[in-house]
Amino acid sequence: MNVAIFTDNDFDKVNGVTTTFRAALQSAPAGIHLRVYTAASLPVETDSYLALRSLGLPIPFYSEMQIYLPRFREFLKRARADRIDLVHLTTPGPIGLAALYVAWRLDLPLVGSFHTDLAAYATLLSGSSRLGALMREYMRWPYGRCARVLAPSEHTRQLLISAKSNPDRIAVWPRGVDTTLFSPAKRSPSIREKWHVSDRRPALLYVGRVSREKGLLSLPAISDRLYKLGVEHRCIIVGDGPLLSTLRDALPDALFTGSLSRQAVAEAFASADCFVFPSTTDTAGNVVLEAQASGLPVVVSDTGGPRENMVAGLTGTVCHREDSGEWAAAIAGLLAQPQRSRFSQSARHYALTRTWERAMEPLYRAYREVLEGVSLAESTDTITAAVHRA
Q1: What contacts 24+ positions apart, CB below 8 Å, involve 364-367?
Q2: Is 3.40.50.2000 the CATH classification of the domain at 2-176+357-389?
């Protein structure tokens, strides 16, 4: 089986989407050959990756990032030459339109996966709820043409259902983590010394885009509350984005590293003391798993998918999205010994159960079943029967 995965995220980007599909390529079983189709400013071509050189345009309300105009005929030509059997649509954006075009012209089945809540982003970044509603309506169109849609969390699945997507076609495809790359063994005393942190002044880490939709404007209030509780700390912000200058002003004591390599990010995770992720728009939050794999307790919002990638009370805490006092109290509790050591060990143990190999099984199963014409209901019945037999 040859599968074409169409994504707007070229592999020069480091985010949850590219991390997921790099893992999909590495874990693909015998009999399933995957090739990522995307667009970029520079062409790249390997056996498993095709980036066509394309014209880039700034994203509305987010000019620091670009989208690329798809070359429909060239994608079609390449898909035909690759003898593609199934098309995987991962975005409602421009490259997603190319996926629809290729599937239509070659009469191929479509599997969809949902990664980014663009409707929530549109509402938050534009300030217009009407624009967000229009985006949600639009997103029903490409995903409505997919025989199976894979959501990264039950929260996201329910979001799609509430947006009038067919629940009989939506399954959950959870995420995994590389527990070799992300490990407590990467902890670096020299990095902690450079950060000017210690057991008495712990490091509160955030990793990801430094942008409004990540809920980062709540960090200054949380930090102030911690100081009022007598909790010394230092915020370490790893990443780049349009909110950087605003946060620098609001968190004068914080350290901003900018973008780091994957290896350096792994070292940053392991060298911190607690991971704080206030996003309410993330559908999964791969970084939450990466933090736990690195031995960090996590604090996440009660809104969004990340809360499904941790165990409240065991590997971290879930807090109300807008209650800075609750966030500060939770962080203070996680930093106090002996809770810190207990949560750290539990976080690592939990992450070890969330390998990419296990996480990829629903994806590969969906490919096989869609190609064979097996519905999600039939798949669920088969799985349930197998469980009962066991």
Answers
A1: 364/28, 364/29, 364/32, 366/111, 366/148, 366/150, 366/171, 366/173, 367/1, 367/3, 367/32, 367/86, 367/88, 367/111
A2: yes
